[in-house]
Please model this.
Amino acid sequence: MVAGIPGNAGVFFFVDRAANRAMTLTLWDDEAAARQSDATADASRARTVDATGVELVERAAYDVVTD
Model:
């Protein structure tokens, strides 16, 4: 689903089975694309929580530094 959102530059899903935790990392072409994805992301998170009962622990944004 995320790959089809305009401005998406990649997505990774990390799972720590031993700790029973997961993390999704999405990458965006620029900050504007990331902000435009917020409504879609909020709806997706809500559906995931409703369907699985998982707890959303944290949501954050970071800059990618390449230098």
Summary: Residues 31 and 63 are 9 Å apart (CA to CA). The beta strands are 8-16, 21-28. The chain has two helices and two strands.
